[in-house]
Design a protein that fits this description.
single chain; 456 residues; mainly alpha; Growth Hormone, Chain: A; two-stranded antiparallel ribbon; 21 helices; globular
Length: 456
């Protein structure tokens, strides 16, 4: 058997995770620019964000089923091709209209899911005794990608002048295309790293676990409870992140991409040390604390209308959301190892679908409360066919009208955070009960694929 280069394979997965994260941050930053370019309401902007989640669940589930058949290397190379194609279609989309932008985002979602369907089981296979820690380290690539993309976005905005109020539409259009094109570099890099490497078979394949056995694990009550919790925690994590760029600009007047970078720094540090935190607090203890801080941070953000208050609230939210996704994946792999790549695929698919679909919901809330808080005369001018129109809004130049629009958008943006704050409440109590239950039975235990249990 060829030698497995664990370090190179793990590096490949981390760069792929960075590639998945960068477009997410960039779309958050360029959302307003796309709104102007295509004349999109907040709901339509949320729909564009959600397009990635449409392709992701299909590809991650298909990849989870095919992982043992076609191999993880082919899945990684297919993901690389999808990322490159999606970026190119996004850059060309203004020439063809909003449907092509949706299609390009959908393609990138397919690539994201394909990559993650291979990454999670690959890491679990490479490090069978360190699954939660290594999966947390892998998913530290997500905040790292957000930080890299956020800083690049700030730099491009600065040098092009796209952030200035008087910036011409052509400059704004060129600026967001440059930002999106930067994702090509990590996409090509992880594709190159995947070529010529020997990828091991998954843990289930090497242990002779059949597909039917993997499917049966998905009906275990404990797994189903984790799956339901993933829906709500993802809505609390991924949904608000999509609106940071737009919402915080409206609430405190500062580009939300800076706040996304700020919260991602906390996430990077915490996910890097996720294994140590899980050992110290137990995975369920870590999840309880994370849900509490994420919910409190979101609630505070919905009432924070000064930069300092928003910074403190964003820090609390950033700390809280950091360990939710990788810890749930880690618990899934450690407690239900015979579910293999399929259960990890289901968990990831449900998570991204819930987070993605919360985008249009929050966008609808954003629009609704913006319109509700507008004076009637202003609403008549900016509400077109029942939706808030950024183009119509930009045509109003009277100081009183502009002030009224800013105040209405501030209230609409705040409501997106207020609604999201409720999402982690139920999982908090579920994780608390599960943690107590494990403690009463002697503590949290890792189940190996042969069915034996061992203490963490």
């Amino acid at each position: 058997m060829p030698e497995i280069n664990r370090k190179r394979l793990f590096l490949t997965t981390c760069i792929a995770m960075v590639t998945i994260a960068m477009p997410f941050a960039i779309r958050s930053d360029i959302l307003s620019a796309l709104g102007r370019e295509f004349d999109l309401s907040h709901e339509q902007q949320g729909l564009m964000q959600a397009a990635a989640s449409w392709g992701y669940p299909f590809s991650v589930l298909a990849g989870g089923l095919l992982c043992d058949i076609v191999g993880m290397r082919l899945l990684m190379l297919m993901a690389c091709g999808g990322h490159i194609a999606g970026i190119i279609f996004t850059i060309l989309s203004p020439a063809f209209g909003f449907p092509v932008l949706l299609f390009a985002t959908f393609i990138m979602g397919l690539a994201d899911g394909t990559a993650e369907s291979a990454m999670n089981p690959l890491v679990a296979t490479l490090y069978p005794r360190q699954k939660t820690g290594r999966l947390s380290l892998l998913h530290a690539g997500w905040p790292l990608g957000l930080i890299i993309a956020g800083l690049l976005c700030l730099f491009v905005t600065k040098i092009t002048g796209a952030g200035l109020p008087e910036a011409p539409a052509a400059v704004v259009s060129i600026s967001w295309r440059i930002k999106m094109s930067l994702v090509l570099f990590p996409a090509i890099l992880y594709g190159i790293l995947s070529v010529g490497q020997f990828f091991p078979g998954t843990e289930c394949r090497e242990s002779g676990v059949s597909m039917m056995e993997m499917l049966k694990e998905g009906f275990r009550p404990g797994f189903i409870i984790l799956l339901l919790c993933m829906i709500l925690t993802s809505a609390a994590e991924v949904g608000p992140d999509q609106w940071f760029g737009s919402a915080l600009k409206d609430t405190v007047g500062i580009g939300g991409i800076a706040f996304l970078v700020f919260t991602s720094c906390f996430m990077l540090v915490l996910r890097y040390n996720g294994g140590k935190l899980a050992d110290a607090l137990t995975p369920f203890g870590l999840l309880v604390g994370s849900c509490f801080m994420a919910g409190l941070g979101l609630w505070w953000l919905s009432h924070a209308f000064t930069p300092l208050a928003a910074l403190a609230a964003a820090a609390l939210f950033g700390i809280g959301k950091s360990c939710l996704w990788p810890t749930i994946l880690g618990v899934t792999s450690e407690r239900y190892p015979r579910g293999g790549s399929f259960l990890l695929a289901i968990m990831s698919a449900i998570g991204i679908l819930a987070g993605g679909m919360s985008g249009p919901v929050l966008g609808r809330v954003y629009d609704r409360y913006t319109i509700v808080n507008l004076p009637a005369t202003v609403a008549q001018a900016v509400v077109v066919d029942g939706r808030y129109s950024p183009v119509a809004s930009a045509k109003l130049s009277a100081p009183a009208d502009r002030a009224a629009i800013r105040e209405a958008e501030k209230q609409g943006a705040a409501m997106t955070f207020r609604l999201s704050a409720a999402a982690p409440v139920l999982p908090l109590f579920v994780f608390l009960v599960m943690g107590i239950r494990h403690r009463m039975r002697g503590g949290y235990r890792i189940v190996n694929i042969g069915g034996k249990r061992g203490n963490r």
